[in-house]
Every structure is written in structure tokens, then in C-alpha cells.
Design brief:
211 residues, alpha/beta, DNA primase DNAg catalytic core, N-terminal domain, Dna Topoisomerase Vi A Subunit, Chain: A, domain 2, 4-stranded antiparallel β-sheet, 4-stranded parallel β-sheet, 7 helices, globular
């Protein structure tokens, strides 16, 4: 099983704290506020890479999204993903080399609820959370792993919120076949959760889910 050393865990937590401390007044904050995600982004420790940690130089100027663990301490950050800001070249999202896919916002899985949403991406999970729907994010449709399945057992409903395109609908279909309590929700052509919530509001989003 892939594991971080104690020093790597410490470095990851230190980097997440550094980036979070650079968030206020940064282009990352401007993006999240513009998306209607300001409050939830701060709660989830979103940051900005102003001064990169060692070996993080390629992420300079990126939004930093920490994958936080509820227990805290030296194990509080499972990984960090980075989102390019602006229209520059290169991939929009980057992960840390060697880090396997993980579930974003696992805090949503420990708070009692009859339902939870699985979103195609971290910002969409934040948008659902901002609308009052507990949600996790998966970094891409091919990132699901077998060992994720047990985390969703016992919910009455697992809403699967893929993007409104072919890949997103294939993700919803695959998840509906995989999890017996999954319910795919189509938000419409060209819509992801964040765009839908921004355009139609929180109440319309929950109504689309049948809540």
C-alpha cells in the first residue's frame, strides 16, 4: 500500500498551511468568490501558491486544494491538488507526483445524513456544500477506486452529479451500476454543479435532486 513517510506528512501539512495563509486577497480568492464559493473555500482550507514549498515550484500561481482528513494532526492533509488560474497553457488541474486518487472532502462522510452527493471535481463538491448538500469530489471520471465503495454504504441515496457531457453521463451511469443506492442526476447539457447553482440558485439545485 502506498504511504507517506512521517517527514512527507509533515511537509504536506506545512505546505497546506502556507498556501492557506496566502489565500486572502489572492487571485485564488477572487475566483472562488466569483464562483459563489468564498465561505466554503475558506472552511475547507483552500489556498494560493504564492511562495511554493520545496518541489512545488511548478504550482506557483495556482489555486491549492487540500484534501483534509477529519482527525487532524500530522495526518490532516492526504494530498493537495492544484488548479491553474487564468487561460495560460498546460493542464487545468495538477496533482502531486505519485499520489493516488483520493476522495475530496471526506468530512461530508462522517456527519449523519440520509444522503450524500458525489461530484465530478472539487469545486463542484464545494458548490453542493454551499447549497447545503453534503458532497464529496472525485478528481475525474477515471479516478474511482474499488476501496471507495464501502464509504457510501448505508446512505439512502448517493446522488451522482456528473458534468452535462458524454464523459459526465458515463460517470453517472457507471456509478449507478456500481453502487446500489446511487441516483444519477442530470443537470442539463453544459452544466456542472457550480454552473447550475450559480445560474439557478441553491433552492433550484436541491429541487433538482428531489430534496
Amino acid at each position: 500500500m502506498w504511504r507517506l513517510s512521517e517527514s512527507q506528512k509533515h511537509d504536506l501539512v506545512t505546505a497546506a498551511i502556507r498556501y492557506s495563509s496566502s489565500y486572502q486577497g489572492s487571485p485564488a480568492e477572487a475566483l472562488m468568490v466569483d464562483r459563489g464559493l468564498g465561505a466554503v473555500a475558506e472552511r475547507l482550507g483552500v489556498g494560493f501558491v504564492s511562495e511554493p514549498a520545496i518541489s512545488h515550484e511548478r504550482y506557483r500561481g495556482h489555486l491549492a486544494i487540500p484534501y483534509l482528513r477529519p482527525a487532524g494532526g500530522i495526518n490532516s492533509v492526504a494530498t493537495i491538488r492544484f488548479r491553474r488560474l487564468g487561460d495560460g497553457g498546460g493542464p487545468k488541474y495538477l496533482g502531486l507526483p505519485g499520489h493516488p486518487p483520493r476522495i475530496f472532502n471526506t468530512q461530508a462522510l462522517i456527519n449523519p445524513s440520509p444522503y450524500v452527493a458525489v461530484c465530478e471535481g472539487e469545486l463542484d463538491a464545494m458548490a453542493a456544500e454551499a447549497a447545503g448538500v453534503p458532497a464529496v469530489g472525485i478528481p475525474g471520471v477515471s479516478s474511482w477506486r474499488d476501496h471507495f465503495d464501502p464509504a457510501f454504504a448505508g446512505y439512502e441515496t448517493v446522488f451522482v452529479l456528473g458534468d452535462g457531457d458524454d464523459a459526465g453521463r458515463k460517470f453517472s451511469q457507471a456509478m449507478s451500476e456500481r453502487l446500489p443506492n446511487a441516483k444519477g442526476v442530470d443537470l442539463g447539457d453544459g452544466y456542472d454543479v457550480n454552473k447550475f447553482v450559480q445560474e439557478f440558485g441553491h433552492d433550484a439545485f436541491k429541487e433538482r435532486l428531489g430534496l
